[in-house]
Design brief:
Length: 815
């Protein structure tokens, strides 16, 4: 008996090689997508956390202002604190090419051999580094070398960087690098090696170099060192409230020994700073993989329908001689399970490889190591087992329906029943269309359930494509809006306040249209509801400034002749929801307190910030200090070449004027970050859309093939009464196009709402900035063309085979 069942299963699948192959191929694609995401989740969810936790990340970072160097042993035991270590942090910039700098964050390590908090791991460095040298985080040199090669080759924008062969390239880490530290410290430091610090945000994302040195080395340079304590929480004190209470107890203990905490921050000690970004990409891959897999249900249903339709009479005979509905169901369900096992066995090796490839790419992007080298055997077995159940579950309703059909109905079955055709309304709607197209539309609605399933399958693919196009349009629009809001090309931060006259020459260059000088402060917001007084950037805007034309969300921007008040950005509004229009605000800047009112909210890329007119600030605080610490420069022609020339001019003239610069930053940095994420986002979405559309095309091919099987006798009659092969192909193509148009229209209706959610999600997940949604007209036109093209391609082969089949063979195959 078992042998007979096995032979029948093999015969059913082998007899319909084309549809069986299409179904297996579609499920392979779906299993591959889901399996890749599952492997990446399995690898990365553990490995990123393991990389991060092995550094013993701090939950409290407290900068001190006291007498001399603190001896941590004097602090003693503090309730809630497990480890306390002194890790001063200095800021500056490192030169990677002439007049080209990267932000530098330098940590002073008291004892490299006993790092209990914020541990770093040697890659090719001896720890502690030799006196006078530094070690850098491993992700820094690659980005510095990339920028250096591009600079040396003279390439701009996205042009390829080609180094002049006559000019030898010296790697960033192979020569002493010029460093400027706060306080007027200029040195040339040698890099003695690289270390791995998975706690930090990747250098390539932050465009920064992370460096580590001993206290003796930094003191030898003459840099001022402010002690900074890093604290890990003790077990049982790891929630937010306990961590803040621990910080308060530590501040009290420091006060007892003569030290004052001037700034306290609370970095996450449980997850990496970019954990959410990684999860977002994995959720995207998983979601589209699941879509592709669900769409394979259409293939399975079409395959089992193609197998069962010609065998309904056989089922009637089997039931007449004693076979039960359960036995018949098990026979066909076993056939579907075999297709699932075959598909999973084929897809599994590819899923493992691509899953580890995705893991490697994300690990490199976030700068951590992949620790998992192989999957457990149980995971592979579980994958194959789950995959074998998928086609069984998808086919079960169809199998159960036919296995329970009465014997008399089964014996009378003859395929599609024209009498059940509900086509008159369709015929009335399409009276002006050619007869072949009307017949195709009527046939499409003959099996509404299958038509809707196939249309939904194609619609999902088109929807993913539309999401990609709408996201692209939204990102480009957001970048353009950000560029229009920031009407400057270079932002200069000075190391200390200076007289504006010292840099008045910035507007004298022929390529410069306008230059302005501002003052940027740190302001504490005083509120009884928020005892933890976080500080925010406060921009003092000079009179007649036109360097910003922000996107105003509520209220108004700062304008001359208008009532006084401050403007906040949306990030600050999110952090402090109580700050609506007209809200009273009490600020403390440089020890002086004043009150003002919120008059506007703007949308801005960057951290939480406030803006106030400089004249109002000086009036409220009676501050006679007119020095500035920031400059804004706008070019007449903002090209990459002019930007490079301006940077070189400013650097050289600042040196001549003996003005210390903390950093020069492109005014288009926000739009560049947005555009930088654009390529990876849209490329990922388009690849996933291609994956889903390929399954859609297979589903439509299978649906057309099943329809031909069910209507074999009908098509033979059409041929017998004079229907040409071309007419038959047009009828079947019209049916496929009708299904495609239904799917396209459904996707179009959903695309705006879904794309808006996806656009907001990516903005918050990747750059913490809500993108402005814009619908893509190009996406509408191109998706329509893709839907029709896929319908024609999917129906082409089955239609040709049906049109070439002889009338006699068609009548016999349907009998």
């Amino acid at each position: 008996m078992a042998s007979s069942v096995a032979k029948k299963i093999w015969h059913d699948l082998a007899e319909r090689k084309g549809r069986s192959a299409i179904t297996i191929l579609g499920m392979c694609i779906g299993f591959w997508g889901v399996g890749s995401a599952a492997v990446a989740w399995l690898v990365l969810s553990n490995d990123l956390a393991s990389n991060f936790q092995q550094t013993n990340p701090p939950a409290i970072a407290m900068t001190l202002n006291g007498q001399g160097v603190i001896d941590v042993s004097r602090i003693g035991a503090v309730e809630g604190a497990q480890n306390i270590e002194n890790r001063p942090q200095l800021s500056g910039r490192a030169q990677y090419a002439p007049d080209r700098w990267l932000k530098l964050v330098l940590w002073v390590v008291e004892d490299f051999t006993d790092m209990r908090v914020g541990t770093v791991f040697p890659v090719n460095a001896a720890l502690p580094p030799p006196p006078g040298t530094i070690v850098v985080e491993r992700d820094g040199p690659p980005i510095a070398n990339f920028l250096k090669r591009r600079e040396q080759s003279g390439s701009v924008g996205h042009e390829r960087s080609v180094v002049d062969p006559d000019r030898p390239f010296v790697r960033f880490e192979d020569a002493p690098i010029p460093i400027q530290l706060a306080g007027g410290i200029d040195i040339a430091a040698e890099i003695s090696g690289t270390v791995f610090d998975p706690r930090q945000a990747p250098s390539r994302m932050e465009m920064a170099i992370y460096a580590y040195a001993t206290r003796d080395t930094v003191e030898q340079w003459g840099a001022a060192i402010a002690d900074r304590l890093l604290v890990t929480p003790a077990p049982g004190y790891e929630d937010e409230a306990s961590i803040h209470a621990t910080a308060a107890r530590l501040e009290a203990r420091l006060a007892e020994i003569g030290f004052t905490a001037v700034e306290t921050s609370y970095p996450s000690h449980t997850k990496h700073v970019h954990q959410f970004q990684m999860n977002s990409i994995l959720w995207l891959i998983s979601g589209v993989g699941m879509l592709a897999l669900l769409m394979c249900a259409v293939l399975v249903v079409n395959l089992i329908s193609g197998v069962l339709t010609p065998q309904v009479r056989q089922i009637g005979v089997l039931k007449a001689i004693g076979a039960s509905a359960r036995q018949i169901t098990m026979m066909y369900a076993t056939a579907m399970a075999v297709t699932g096992i075959i598909s999973a066995s084929i897809a599994l090796p590819f899923a493992i490889r691509s899953g580890f490839a995705v893991s490697g790419k994300l690990a490199a992007m976030l700068n951590f190591d992949v620790l998992t080298q192989a999957l457990p055997l149980s995971a592979c077995i579980g994958f194959v087992f789950a995959a074998s159940l998928f086609p069984v579950i998808a086919a079960l309703p169809t199998v159960c329906r036919w296995s329970r059909v009465p014997v008399t109905d089964a014996l009378r079955h003859s395929g599609a029943n024209p009498e059940q055709d509900n086509s008159p309304p369709i015929d009335r709607i399409t009276t002006l269309l050619p007869i072949t197209f009307r017949i195709g539309l009527r046939n499409a609605f003959r099996k509404p359930q299958r038509t809707l399933m196939t249309a939904a399958s194609l619609g999902l693919g088109v929807l993913v494509f539309m999401i990609a196009m709408n996201t692209r349009t939204s990102l480009l629009h957001t970048a353009e809006m950000e560029e229009n809001a920031r009407r400057f090309d270079v932002l200069i931060g000075f190391e200390e306040p200076i007289a504006a006259s010292q840099v008045s020459w910035m507007s004298a260059f022929s390529i410069v249209e306008r230059a302005e000088t501002w003052r940027v402060e740190r302001a504490a917001m005083l509120s009884a509801a928020a005892p933890q007084q976080d500080t925010f950037r406060l921009f003092r805007v000079p009179d007649n400034s036109d360097m910003m034309k922000p996107n105003v969300l509520a209220g108004r921007w700062l304008e001359d002749g208008m009532p006084y008040g401050v403007v906040i950005n949306h990030r600050l509004r999110l952090e402090r929801p109580e700050l609506g229009l007209g809200a009273a605000l009490r600020l403390e800047v440089n020890g002086q307190e004043f009150e003002t009112t919120v008059i506007g909210v703007i949308k801005e890329f960057g951290p939480a910030s406030l803006y106030i007119r400089d004249a109002e600030y000086r009036e409220l605080t009676n501050d006679p200090d007119r020095r500035i610490n920031a400059g804004f420069v706008r070019l007449k022609e903002p090209t990459e070449i002019n930007l490079a020339a301006l940077t070189a001019l400013l650097e050289s003239h600042f040196e001549l004027a003996q003005v210390r610069v903390r950093g020069l930053q492109s005014g288009k940095i926000a739009s560049r970050v947005i555009r930088g994420h654009l390529d990876s986002i849209v490329t990922t979405l388009l690849v996933l859309a291609l994956l889903v559309l390929s399954v859609s095309a297979l589903g439509m091919t299978s649906a057309v093939s099943t329809s031909i099987v069910e209507r074999g006798r009908e098509l033979a009659i059409l041929r017998a009464i004079g229907g040409t092969p071309l007419a038959i192909r047009r009828i079947l193509s019209s049916e496929a196009i009708a299904i495609a148009l239904i799917g396209w229209a459904s996707a179009l209706l959903l695309s705006a709402a879904v794309s808006g959610l996806v656009t907001d999600f990516f903005g918050e997940a990747l750059v913490e900035y809500p993108f402005d949604f814009r619908f893509s007209p190009l996406g509408v036109v191109s998706s329509f063309g893709i839907a029709v093209l896929l319908a024609m391609l999917a129906s082409n082969t089955p239609a040709r085979l049906a049109s070439r089949q002889s009338v006699r063979a068609a009548m016999q195959s349907s009998s």
